[in-house]
Structure formats: C-alpha cells, structure tokens
Design a protein that fits this description.
about 30% helix, single chain, alpha/beta
Length: about 140
C-alpha cells in the first residue's frame, strides 16, 4: 500500500494561517449544529492539541487546535467540505483512523509539533491518524 506524506499538508496549513487557533473560532459549535447527534471531546484546558468529533461512540473526525487541519471519515466528508473551507481548515478525508497509510518527515516534526511526545514509539513511515493523534495529543 502506498503511503501519503502528510508533511506538506501540515506545513501549508501552518503557513497559510500561522496564528490560527481552534479556540478562537466557533467551528466546534458549528459542527455540533451541522452534524446531528455529534459531540466534541477536547480537553483544551489541559493542553490537548486535538478536538475529536463523535457521533455516539463513533469517532468521525479530529481537528488540530493550533494548525488549521482536520481529518474526517469519508462518509462524513460531504458534511465537512464546505464547513472546513469556510473556516480555512484543510480537510483530509480518511477511510478510517487505524489504517497505516500516511507518513511524516521526521526532521520536520519538531517544527510542526512542539509536543511530539510519543514520536519515537510511532513509525512515521507507516502512520495511521490514530497514531498521529496519540503521538501529538
């Protein structure tokens, strides 16, 4: 399986809106309003960098709090395309959060993620979105 390099997406999102902050938008409220039965799981007060979107117990998407980038399951992408564009957020559509179909350039991770906590435990050449979430929460 060919892997998709996410590095340029993160660098582009950061350079396009360098001061972007999820906390300073009403994007999460718009998602809850726009997607029936959705809820947000984000502990921003503890410094968590990802806001996750759920419908009941199903994880359908996650949005980076300090970089204007989001990952949503493809079945929910029709709802998200316009909404993410309205807020200047780069939307990446995924089949699921567990498939290791992505990669990141290790040397650029320090510039992208100040909190790259679990980076050594993650294979950046074969990365799932769940792996990325865990390494950069």
């Amino acid at each position: 399986m060919k892997t998709q390099n996410l590095t340029s997406y993160f660098l582009e999102a950061r350079s396009f809106l360098p001061q972007w902050s999820l906390q300073n938008t009403d994007l999460l409220a718009a998602i809850v309003k726009f997607v029936p039965n959705s809820r947000i799981d984000w502990e921003w007060e503890t410094g968590e960098f990802w806001a996750s979107v759920f419908i009941e117990e199903k994880w359908i998407g996650t949005i980076r709090s300090d970089i204007a980038i989001a990952f949503f399951l493809e079945e929910y992408s029709p709802f998200m395309v316009e909404l993410m564009a309205e807020y200047g957020v780069k939307l990446i559509v995924v089949k699921d959060f567990e498939t290791k179909e992505f990669k990141l350039d290790r040397e650029k991770c320090d510039r992208l993620f100040v909190e790259f906590r679990n980076g050594e435990a993650v294979d950046l050449e074969r990365l799932s979105i769940a792996d990325l979430w865990w390494a950069t929460i």
